[in-house]
Amino acid sequence: MGVAAISTGSIHTFRSRSGARKFPRIEFPAQVEIDGVMYPTNEWSVGGFSLHDNKYMGKKGDKGAGNLCFDLPVGRFSTPCQFEVMRVSEEGYVLGCQFYSLNSGHQKTLQSIVDTYLTGETISLESVTSYGVKAQLHEEEVKRMQQNWWRFATVAIVALSLITIAALMIQSRVLSIESQHAAVSQPVLTQKSYSNGVLRLGDFKPGQLVEKGQLLFSIYTEEGTDLLAKDKQELSNINSEILYYQTLLRQSKEAVARYNSRLFQELKYISEKRSLLEDEMAARESILRLYIKGVRSGSVDVVSRELERVEIFEIKRDILTLDTHIEGIENQLDQILLGVPPREAQVDMKSPFEVESKLDILVKRKDKILEEIERLKTRGLAYAPCKCYIVAINASDGQVVQTGTSVFELSPISTSERTERSILALMPLERAALLKIGMPVEYRLASNDEKLIGTIEKIQFYSASNSDIYNEEGESLSGLPKTLPRLNQYTLIKVTPSSEDADSVVNEPAKVIATVKWKDVFIHWFNL
User: Fold this and answer.
1) What is the Cα 323 distance to its own chain's centre?
2) I want to staple 299 with a disulfide (CB 3.0 to 4.6 A). Which of 160, 162, 294, 477 is the partner?
3) Which InterPro entries does the entry link to (predicted)?
């Protein structure tokens, strides 16, 4: 069916396809340029176009590309398009095609032509080309952005790198406190001379590894015999004391056992007595209820009733007394079960726990005396007590030494024999307020580049003019250099090492870095 549409100076007709197609097709003159050949359209729309029969060969489903061209009064306008063959004739000629991959700009250009044509207005080249130019500019802008995306990415990466470097510089400047000197430390084992005499050393040097039981030095002395006799006499006295306390311990345990048995018997007797009192009280309460009824009926006098009530109160008082006694017995049984029996159960006013403690002390003293006797028997020979590193040698070969003179300072290498191994670090004194006990710190050993995490255990003032450091037991701690400038002052921190750190040795250099939080920095600044 045809409908008339009036345009300025001309009349055009079109076919309405609104009931069958998404886009209305119009008969506005247009041509399709395919491979340089111009094919006039029968009709076209924003969704596709149709061709006259016997013009263009093709098969259904074929895809192609070309330009949709319009001859306007002031010039030719064309727009690129891609199409797919949808209808063909029996002879194999293309009758209808559908656009695909048509971008929004070109789609709007074609729609503007359709809308202008349908409303009967004159189609102006300026209005059509404006959509085409916009679409072309949009495509070029997208292509340009796609081609230059790597430039934006490079700029972003460079900017991010600069920001990261700046942040790391600020962190290393403000948040990180680095040690000026640090080393692995541990209480050293001091090998002393046990007598007066002339020292004979082997060929040892500091840092050397010695095996357990290896001969370290010997002392030739005339006093060795006297010391041996003295130690044997002390050993005899200790053995007598051990025998006495062993007998006392046996007697104490027997006394506690007897007392425990007596308590159980007494508890059984009192419990039975209490049970009988409860039965008696129940019977008297029944009699009291009968007396109360008898008083009301006049067969029992009031005095008898009140005397019965008094008897019941006496029984209750006796039951409370027995309860107190039972509680006392149970408390004593609990004390015995915990190993702290009451004084009444102890012999000579000593508990088995006290006797056992005394025996442990005597046995340790005996072992030490036996060790000293064994060394004296070998003419003053001193052996390495463990597999150790030699930290220092404090005497020279041929030197006359006295009893108790320190000859070797040793550091155990076995993890099971190490005690209080730590990292000693000298930190800047002016930033001491930012360091806290329990703060995690990072450290690296000279023998290993791996980052390890330790914990600050102790913080104290340190001056190179008084560089000796001791632990709570009075043992010396080795590790820090002895040649620091005397006027320098530091904050000394003791760091508990990581559980993964099992190979470090005494005096091994280290580097410690404490990282504080911004909150602590601000609090420190505001408190200045």
Assistant:
1) 55
2) 294
3) UPF0194_transport
Q: Are strands 489-496 and 209-210 parallel, antiparallel or unpaired?
A: unpaired
In this structure, are residues 492 and 514 in contact, taking their beta carbons and an 8 Å threshold?
no
C-alpha 420/C-alpha 373 separation (Å) is: 30
Domain ranges of the chain: 3-139, 175-184+419-527, 226-362
Q: What are the pLDDT tens digits along the chain (528 aa)?
A: 332 333 333 333 334 343 445 777 787 889 999 988 999 998 888 889 999 888 899 999 999 999 889 877 656 778 888 999 999 998 999 999 999 888 777 777 788 777 777 666 555 545 555 555 455 544 544 555 555 666 667 777 887 877 776 655 665 555 678 888 888 877 777 888 877 777 888 888 887 888 888 888 887 665 556 666 777 888 888 888 888 888 877 777 777 778 788 888 888 888 888 899 888 888 888 888 888 888 888 888 888 888 888 988 998 898 899 888 888 888 877 777 766 676 666 656 566 777 778 888 888 888 888 887 776 665 667 888 888 888 888 888 888 888 888 888 887 776 665 566 788 888 887 777 778 888 888 888 888 778 888 888 888 877 766 666 766 655 566 666 666 766 678 888 888 888 777 667 777 788 888 887 766 666 655 554
Dist CA 79 CA 115 (whole Å)? 17
Angle of helix 104-118 relative to helix 125-147, nearest 10 degrees, comes to: 170
Q: How far apart are CA 484 and CA 489, in angstroms?
A: 10
**DSSP string over 268-321:** HHHHHHHHHHHHHHHHHHHHHHHHHHHHHHTSS-HHHHHHHHHHHHHHHHHHHH
Alpha-carbon distance 27 to 11, whole Å? 12
How would you write 33-84 as a 3-class SS string?
Answer: EECCEEEEEEEECCCEEEECCCCCECCCCCEEEEEEEEEECCEEEEEEEEEE
Q: What pTM did the predictor assign?
A: 0.36
Distance CA 443, CA 427 (A): 13
Residue 322 CB burial class (10 angstroms; 0-12, 13-18, ≥19):
middle
Q: Which residues pair with 422 in a beta bridge?
A: 185
**Type of residue found at 37:** V
**Which structure tokens are listed for 160?**
């991010």
Note the CATH architecture for domain 3-139. Beta Barrel (2.40)
What gap in Å lies between CA 144 and CA 349, rounded to an integer? 101
- CB count, 10 Å around CB of 250? 13
Homologous superfamily assigned to 175-184+419-527: Efflux pump adaptor protein, beta barrel domain (2.40.30.170)
The rounded distance, in Å, linking the Cα atoms of 179 and 6 is 93
Region for residue 346 given its phi and psi (left: phi exceeds 0; alpha: psi -120 to 50; beta: otherwise): beta
Q: How far apart are CA 328 and CA 270, in angstroms?
A: 12
- Whose structure tokens read 């202008």? 116
